Structure to design on (1003 residues):
């Protein structure tokens, strides 16, 4: 592996780093030098000393009416990652002292996504590699709110992330394992060796992996999964962020929902909804629905599990404080902070803040609006990594307490001995005396289900599930059926925990007044795959009449889990619900339910479409029919293409046929169909004869081999009266087909065109033709090109060796100005490794990248420059517009190539200056660039805009996109350096540098 690739690996993989500067036992020989010389970035150890717990608490600025109290601290607690309260009100703390590197492992190699491959899989306890992690129990014995009794439940753990109790013991998440330590007598001493319940959680990046165990309202254990690690559990493979769950009794594992930000927490509200925080900015996290697919870092973390998802959800919409990130969130329903009841409370480690947000309905999901901050401080050591509501109604925070937060440094400079737990409560709030819900009778536990603090209700539910006492079912059923408030829902959950959920009960609870009893009835029917003819009829009727959008959302999600004969009558009814056409979740849930049956139950889909009235619904036309068509051409088996033809023949109107054309063409992106079935060609010929020849129909017909379609495409590209959008789409089609006649036409158009935007389209199309005439034509017009066109020309000319050599010779001859050539262009030319090119690069550009020492000097110089004299923020805005706005969005303006700067703490010069001077020190995964080498040896660079099974779409820095069939790609690798150029400040005067930083750092 080359040194550059290893450089980026270290940026992305903090888990590779050992405890010392030179740790030969942790790394293969090829890595040692990089660890020694690596320069970290971000919120690193700043050399300051920690405040004492008493001093630190005084630095916190609290919202009116709130008090923060230190309830546990070092030496009893250090590097606390996760907190949990058991039925006795005792606080369990997972202390992540082994971080950042697993004990007993050595890094051997890396995959193409730069994840670590270790020399072995660590064995589970008791024969594990002993680490430094431990799980401790902290008890407030006198009820004064301070934990005064401390004990260790487990030590010697290795990458332990979370703990919960229940089912007669303790569940410990220690990747790659989910472990169960039996402790039936509750004496806090495990009864024996742990049982391994799950294996397969990845360890590639120890700051981001499986985390945050929680008991769900349905009796499953739920957990979050961070963005950078992979997992393969019970045959289920997934990449990166997700919410997963495991049923301790049935031993079943599922991915509950996929995607989101770097998922670090998990909470359930009083209705059983699922929420998590994120590492994104300008949001308060994700509302997860079962089976949902959410945004993720596609380039690094790969596509969704289902390559035919054809859509995904975003984070909840938000108004308020924008900087990232709200990684540790709860829905507060503790009853003791009335002003914050029902709010999201978010610990924000990066910005040393605790923020509350109101939650508002947004169709079947939610949006958030911030209140004033709950906690702010100028103590950069204040790092909230976990937030929990306690049994007393207070909010508890685990504070990592370290001046360092960034994982972008190979050295283990973490402050291992510090850590605090805080209790945030209302002024004058009373503490609670010791208690033990585990000693309550079942009647007393049922009475606890009306407790105003959600924690007590949830804990009582967990204990009822532990006991699984079926004798409780009749009484609980009476309570559930005669009430319509929270007690009804709690009783319904308790019925399920006690083994009493049946199809007979479901028939009654589907008619319940409480919408979330209907919701959870549907959910449990889907989870258990239970169905009867009577229930199918009842659910179908409910789909027609249900008024609550979240119940309809749950119905749509559960249809994915039921058999086709049961699901499709319900789906048909939901599709007719006009009010859901613009819902945040329901349209895609309906699609995913249909897609699940696409190949195994294709007759059910064509039967659905046999009803002509279903085609006229807004849901079908706006969201479903094009996706159905796309599904059958995206996976080009004979059976799928035959089904596509069958559906095309079913379309009742031209408007429906147009939607099918759209979907069929989208599925055929990338390359032509080999030997398409006669039925599909016949149906396409009918369209050709009867429908307007739109670019999509021309593309579809061309990809299916109709020669007249290709001929028309060329005529329309040649005709200047063709609408610009149509001409652009057909030009792209000619590029993908790559015939000699197409190249001849594109070259002629390029040479004759006087429109710069049109020439960019043409040169982008021509770049996939391996022909000297393309390079010659671009160079012939280069001198007259405006800057944006030159940027595109440089990207293209540097993509092939012969074109690069001709371009470099133009610089050597003086026909092209050396200073006009972008650093990225020169680096791309060097990538061809041709001696003649390298010689010219060395002659005209010398050393392209500064050494680490030079960059550190430059960082220091810029720091001195911006402090010795003040800059003018207004003038800086103009500098920003010229130097930065093409790629970065800031204060609502700019491009989307690079990160949105509104989400970052730009008033921190220790973060901002290194990020500008040396952008490759840390590259956010969603902005990682990729190098693509095609089978005809073209080298392309850019961002992966679409990652599909048959093709990728690559977008370059000039924002031009090209579609590349996967069967034409020889190599695809993440770039070892940022696409943001170094030396950005070198072209500015000292005053312009001051002005730019004044603009960026203004509050």
């Amino acid at each position: 592996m080359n040194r550059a690739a290893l450089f980026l690996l270290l940026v992305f993989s903090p888990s590779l780093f050992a405890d010392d500067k030179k740790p030969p036992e942790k790394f293969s020989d090829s890595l040692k030098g990089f660890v020694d010389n690596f320069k970290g970035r971000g919120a690193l150890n700043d050399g300051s000393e920690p405040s004492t717990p008493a001093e630190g608490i005084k630095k916190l600025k609290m919202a009116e009416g709130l008090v923060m109290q230190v309830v546990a601290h070092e030496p009893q607690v250090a590097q606390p990652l996760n907190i949990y309260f058991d039925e006795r009100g005792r606080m369990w703390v997972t202390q992540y002292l082994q971080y950042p590197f697993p004990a007993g492992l050595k890094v051997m190699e890396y995959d193409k996504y730069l994840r670590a491959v270790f020399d072995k899989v660590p064995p589970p306890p008791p024969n594990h590699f002993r680490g430094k992690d431990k799980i401790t129990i902290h008890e407030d014995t006198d009820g004064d709110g301070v934990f005064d009794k401390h004990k260790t439940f487990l030590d010697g753990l290795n990458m332990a992330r979370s703990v919960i109790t229940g089912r007669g013991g303790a569940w410990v998440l220690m990747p790659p394992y989910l472990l169960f330590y039996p402790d039936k007598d509750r004496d806090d001493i495990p009864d024996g060796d742990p049982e391994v319940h799950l294996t397969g959680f990845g360890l590639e990046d120890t700051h981001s992996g499986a985390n945050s165990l929680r008991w769900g309202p349905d009796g499953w254990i739920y957990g979050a999964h961070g963005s950078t690690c992979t997992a393969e559990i019970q045959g289920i493979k997934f990449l990166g962020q997700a919410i997963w769950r495991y049923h301790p009794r049935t031993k079943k594992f599922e991915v509950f929902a996929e995607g989101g930000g770097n998922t670090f927490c998990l909470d359930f509200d009083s209705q059983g909804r699922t929420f998590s925080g994120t590492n994104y900015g300008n949001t308060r996290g994700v509302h997860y629905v079962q089976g949902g697919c959410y945004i993720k870092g596609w380039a690094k973390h790969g596509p969704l599990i289902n390559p035919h998802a054809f859509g995904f959800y975003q984070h909840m919409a938000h108004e308020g404080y924008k900087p990232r990130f709200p990684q540790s969130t709860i829905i507060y329903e503790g009853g003791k902070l009335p002003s914050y009841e029902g709010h999201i409370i978010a610990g924000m480690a990066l910005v040393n803040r605790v923020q509350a947000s109101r939650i508002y309905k947004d169709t079947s999901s939610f949006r958030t609006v911030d209140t004033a901050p709950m906690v702010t401080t100028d103590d950069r050591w204040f790092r909230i990594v976990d937030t929990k509501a306690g049994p007393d109604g207070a909010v508890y925070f685990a504070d990592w307490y370290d001046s360092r937060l960034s994982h972008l440094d190979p050295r283990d400079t973490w402050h291992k001995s510090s850590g605090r737990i805080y209790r945030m409560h209302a002024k004058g709030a009373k503490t609670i005396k010791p208690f033990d819900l585990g000693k309550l009778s079942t009647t007393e536990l049922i009475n606890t289900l009306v407790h105003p603090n959600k924690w007590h209700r949830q804990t009582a539910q967990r204990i009822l599930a532990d006991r699984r006492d079926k004798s409780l079912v009749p009484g609980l059923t009476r309570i559930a059926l005669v009430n319509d408030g929270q007690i009804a829902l709690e009783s319904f959950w308790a019925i399920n925990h006690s083994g009493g959920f049946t199809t007979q009960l479901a028939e009654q609870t589907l008619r319940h007044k409480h919408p979330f009893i209907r919701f959870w009835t549907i959910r449990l029917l889907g989870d258990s795959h239970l169905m009867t003819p009577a229930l199918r009829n009842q659910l179908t009727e409910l789909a027609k009449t249900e008024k609550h959008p979240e119940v309809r959302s749950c119905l749509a999600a559960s249809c994915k889990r039921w058999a086709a004969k049961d699901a499709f009558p319900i789906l048909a009814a939901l599709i007719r619900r006009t009010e859901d056409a613009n819902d945040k979740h329901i349209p895609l849930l309906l699609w995913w339910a249909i897609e699940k049956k696409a190949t195994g139950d294709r007759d059910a889909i064509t039967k659905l479409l046999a009803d002509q009235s279903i085609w006229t619904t807004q849901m079908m036309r706006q969201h479903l029919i094009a996706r159905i068509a796309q599904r059958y051409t995206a996976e080009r088996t004979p059976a799928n293409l035959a089904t596509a033809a069958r559906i095309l023949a079913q379309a009742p109107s031209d408007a429906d046929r147009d939607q099918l054309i759209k979907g069929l063409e989208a599925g055929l992106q990338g390359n032509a169909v080999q030997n398409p079935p006669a039925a599909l060609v016949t149906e396409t010929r009918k369209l050709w004869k009867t429908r307007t020849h739109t670019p999509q129909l021309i593309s579809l017909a061309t990809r299916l081999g109709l020669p007249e379609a290709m001929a028309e495409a060329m005529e329309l590209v040649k005709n200047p009266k063709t609408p610009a959008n149509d001409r652009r789409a057909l030009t792209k089609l000619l590029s993908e087909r790559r015939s000699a006649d197409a190249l001849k036409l594109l070259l002629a158009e390029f040479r004759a065109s006087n429109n710069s935007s049109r020439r960019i389209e043409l040169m982008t199309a021509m770049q996939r033709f391996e022909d000297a005439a393309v390079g010659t034509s671009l160079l012939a017009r280069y001198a007259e090109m405006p800057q944006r066109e030159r940027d595109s020309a440089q990207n293209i000319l540097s993509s092939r060796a012969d074109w690069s050599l001709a371009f470099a010779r133009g610089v050597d001859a003086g026909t092209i100005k050396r200073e006009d050539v972008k650093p990225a262009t020169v680096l791309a030319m060097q990538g061809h490794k041709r001696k003649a090119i390298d010689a010219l690069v060395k002659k005209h550009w010398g050393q392209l990248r500064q050494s680490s020492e030079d960059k550190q000097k430059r960082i220091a110089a810029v720091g001195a420059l911006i402090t010795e004299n003040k800059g003018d923020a207004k003038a800086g805005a103009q500098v920003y517009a010229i130097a930065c706005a093409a790629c970065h969005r800031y204060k609502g303006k700019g491009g989307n190539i690079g990160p949105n700067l509104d989400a970052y703490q730009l008033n921190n010069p220790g973060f901002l200056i290194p990020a500008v001077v040396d952008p490759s020190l840390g590259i956010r995964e969603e902005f990682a660039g990729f190098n693509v080498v095609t089978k005809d040896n073209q080298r392309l660079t850019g961002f992966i805009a679409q990652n599909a099974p048959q093709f990728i779409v690559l977008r370059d820095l000039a924002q031009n996109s090209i579609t590349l069939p996967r069967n034409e790609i020889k190599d695809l690798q993440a770039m070892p350096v940022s696409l943001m150029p170094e030396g950005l400040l070198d072209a500015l005067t000292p005053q312009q540098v001051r002005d730019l930083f004044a603009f960026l750092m203004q509050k």
